[in-house]
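Quick one:
INPUT:
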């Protein structure tokens, strides 16, 4: 059942947004309160997977896990607007010339929910969303021991629409990167101009970071520890 947000209430906690009247509110027109906004643990960096740039926005913390369950598991469609609230203006500007290709859920799950989760979120920052990727069976990546099998499950329709286009592949969570790699392999067959990847969150960020990125993070930690470098919000 889809919940509808009432004007002036946070989509997540239903607190009053009027209490957060500030410059951020004027610029971003938030649908979530400051407390919920700061509960997202930001990462907002890019990692390289098979030479492709993959931008991950958040760490997969308990807050994000519960929010995603409310959206996908409890079918709260209104929460689609909560995930990218502070990023939306930047994403609209950066990717306005891209075709956003969404990683699909199973058709069975989408019918039960009444919507496709990734597609719904993607439409909050782009009007050019491609939904030709699909799963041939009701495969659930989270329940698989061998996640590489997803490449046998994913397929594509009308891929010719991607020829010579800038592609942004969009998914909600990345764990092993098997789904992302399988989707990229399908997209590459249609000779796109470029491929980038945007993922909402990951609980396996360390495995994707390069040794250089890890070294820089360790240096930051040392500088913070000895108070040489001030700690900023969402540094880690």
């Amino acid at each position: 059942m889809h919940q509808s947000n009432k004007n002036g209430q946070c989509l997540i906690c239903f607190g009053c947004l009027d209490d957060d009247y500030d410059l951020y509110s004027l610029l971003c027109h938030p649908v979530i309160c400051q407390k919920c906004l700061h509960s997202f643990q930001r990462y907002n960096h890019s990692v390289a997977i098979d030479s492709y740039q993959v931008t991950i926005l958040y760490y997969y913390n308990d807050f994000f896990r519960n929010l995603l369950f409310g959206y996908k598991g409890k079918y709260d469609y209104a929460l689609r607007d909560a995930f990218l609230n502070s990023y939306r203006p930047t994403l609209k500007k950066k990717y306005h010339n891209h075709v956003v290709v969404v990683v699909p859920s199973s058709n069975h799950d989408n019918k039960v929910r009444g919507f496709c989760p990734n597609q719904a979120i993607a439409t909050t920052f782009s009007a050019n969303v491609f939904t030709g990727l699909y799963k041939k069976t009701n495969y659930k990546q989270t329940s698989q021991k061998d996640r590489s099998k997803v490449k046998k499950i994913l397929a594509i329709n009308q891929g010719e629409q991607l020829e010579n286009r800038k592609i942004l592949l969009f998914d909600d969570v990345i764990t092993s990167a098997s789904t992302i790699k399988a989707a990229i392999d399908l997209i590459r067959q249609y000779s796109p101009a470029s491929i980038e990847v945007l993922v909402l969150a990951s609980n396996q960020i360390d495995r994707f970071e390069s040794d250089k990125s890890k070294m820089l993070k360790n240096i930051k930690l040392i500088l913070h520890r000895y108070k040489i470098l001030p700690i900023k919000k969402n540094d880690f």
